[in-house]
């Protein structure tokens, strides 16, 4: 059994920050459970372009307001507490955070914690040594 708090991982290598977001990785690939789990805040007034070519991501909004744009279709969706979206087709997308937007994210395959978005918004596929 693993029990972990945000306070325990704040300031560690599991606490990853980029110009438009901060992600605290509660579960990573090294736990070997088949997914990773992140508490992520996208900063108010920012826009983040992403494309998970190598991962499936489910996102559940638990705080704040924002907008999700499917760059392939132009479709827009309001993000607010209680909204979930699943990127099951590796969609190119943009998240616009109108306020600080707090989300819970699940990735499959799990991330290792070392990933950063490249110029296309993609996380590379990094695997853990077994």
UniProtKB/TrEMBL annotation:
Keyword terms of this UniProt record: Lyase
Highest taxon in the source lineage: Bacteria
Catalytic activity: (2S)-4-acetamido-2-aminobutanoate = L-ectoine + H2O
One Pfam family here: Ectoine_synth
Originating organism: Actinoallomurus vinaceus
Pathway: Amine and polyamine biosynthesis; ectoine biosynthesis; L-ectoine from L-aspartate 4-semialdehyde: step 3/3
Enzyme class: lyase
Protein known as: L-ectoine synthase
Enzyme Commission code: 4.2.1.108
NCBIfam families: PRK13290.1 (NF009806)
Task performed by this protein: Catalyzes the circularization of gamma-N-acetyl-alpha,gamma-diaminobutyric acid (ADABA) to ectoine (1,4,5,6-tetrahydro-2-methyl-4-pyrimidine carboxylic acid), which is an excellent osmoprotectant.
Xref: SUPFAM superfamilies: RmlC-like cupins (SSF51182)
Family as reported in the entry's similarity comment: Belongs to the ectoine synthase family.
Keyword Lyase among record annotations: yes
């Amino acid at each position: 059994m693993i029990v972990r708090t945000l306070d325990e991982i704040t300031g560690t290598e599991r606490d990853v920050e980029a110009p438009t977001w901060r992600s605290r990785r509660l579960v990573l690939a090294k736990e070997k459970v088949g997914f990773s789990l992140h508490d992520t805040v996208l900063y108010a007034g920012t826009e983040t372009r992403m494309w998970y070519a190598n991962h499936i991501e489910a996102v559940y909004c638990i705080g704040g307001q924002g907008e999700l744009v499917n760059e392939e279709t132009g479709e827009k969706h309001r993000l607010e507490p209680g909204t979930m979206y699943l990127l099951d087709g590796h969609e190119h997308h943009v998240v616009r955070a109108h306020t600080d937007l707090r989300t819970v994210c699940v990735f499959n395959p799990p991330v290792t914690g070392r990933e950063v978005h490249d110029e296309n918004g993609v996380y590379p596929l990094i695997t853990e040594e077994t």
